[in-house]
Design brief:
Blueprint lengths: L4 E6 L8 E6 H76 L7 H4 L21 H44 L9 E4 L2 E5 L6 E4 L2 E4 L5 E3 L4 E9 L3 E9 L2 E11 L6 E2 L4 E5 L9 E8 L2 E3 L12
Antiparallel strand pairs: 1-2, 3-6, 4-5, 6-13, 7-12, 8-9, 8-11, 9-10, 10-12, 10-13, 13-14
GO molecular function, one term: metalloendopeptidase activity
Protein name: M23ase beta-sheet core domain-containing protein
InterPro entries: Cell_wall_metabolism_enzyme (IPR050570), Dup_hybrid_motif (IPR011055), M23ase_b-sheet_dom (IPR016047)
Length: 309
């Protein structure tokens, strides 16, 4: 093979001698290969350094995110504990409301409602399990606690709704139950199955009480209700009857003047009429009856203080 050479002429300036260098082709090839390998190595080192720096930056970012995630998990645990305390307070209030409503308390085991079933996810199913099983377990525990709290809150909501409905019913019942003296007077005749009638001199039932009072004394409704009758009634004279609902009805007889009409709504203590002696009566007085479920009851049992002035 012919041995070729590369000749390089170096001219430094006018008047200076020209220098000549001769290099074989093989040396030039070796030099080019060396420079190429060196360049490749430098580039590779730069790429590796860039990749390592990016990885370190990413690791630092992931560590920061993990710290933030851990802090958020702790915050969720604290909030779950606070909510549990609030729910416990609601349980105590619910017991009081149920007692006022005449309902029995809910058993403690029912309040400790369980959470489970096919829809409940295990911590191992979390996306974090492979990378951070500890955090996955913590989040799973928080999710379980929150689900239990949700169930307890739903149970409390149902219980409070029931208690509220019963209280509203009880309130309406109390408002409709005869409970006051309908007129200021003296008890002159009591409730009896057989009383000697002052006019007929016969033993007849007396399904109410008589309150002797001055003519014109106001007669008040014993409870909330609707006037079902207002007018003249044989034997009773001018009479007012009030339907209170829940099976209660009251009758006020022998009045001298009526202030209400049929269908009128009245409140407890509202004036209905004035005491008189109309009908079969010998003197001014109020004949007062209380009927429950179509049966006459002793009105004295429906006066809260139990005292006739």
């Amino acid at each position: 093979m012919e041995n070729r050479e590369w000749t390089f002429l170096c001219i430094s300036g006018v008047g200076n001698p020209v220098r000549q260098y001769s290099v074989s082709t093989r040396v030039v090839s070796y030099a080019a290969s060396f420079i190429s390998a060196l360049t490749t190595s430098v580039v590779a080192l730069l790429v590796m350094a860039a990749v390592e720096g990016s990885a370190r930056y990413e690791i630092r970012g992931l560590r920061s995110e993990k710290i933030l995630l851990s802090q958020e998990v702790l915050d969720l645990q604290e909030k779950a504990s606070e909510i549990e305390g609030l729910v416990d307070g609601l349980v105590e209030n619910d017991e009081r409301y149920r007692l006022l409503a005449g309902l029995g308390p809910i058993h403690e085991e029912i309040y400790e409602v369980g959470v489970g079933g096919p829809g409940t996810l295990a911590p191992i199913s979390s996306l974090l399990w492979d990378t951070d099983p500890t955090t996955a377990k913590t989040i799973g525990a928080i999710d379980y606690d929150l689900s239990a709290l949700k169930r307890r809150a739903e149970l409390l909501s149902t219980s409070l709704t029931e208690a509220t409905g019963r209280l509203e019913t009880n309130r309406a019942l109390l408002e409709s139950t005869p409970s006051i003296i309908p007129a200021a007077g003296l008890l002159s005749s009591g409730f009896s199955q057989a009383r000697l009638h002052p006019l007929s001199n016969e033993a007849l039932p007396h399904p109410g009480i008589d309150l002797s009072a001055v003519g014109g004394t106001p007669i008040f409704s014993a409870a909330k209700g609707v006037v079902s009758y207002a007018g003249w009634k044989p034997g009773y004279g001018y009479t007012v009857e009030v339907d209170h609902g829940f099976g209660y009805m009251t009758r006020y007889a022998h009045a001298s003047k009526l202030f209400v009409i049929r269908g009128q709504k009245v409140k407890r203590g509202e004036s209905l009429a004035e005491v008189g002696k109309t009908g079969m009566a010998t003197a001014n007085h109020l004949h007062y009856e209380v009927w429950v479920g179509g049966e006459a009851k002793n009105p004295l049992n429906y006066i809260l203080n139990g005292v006739i002035p």
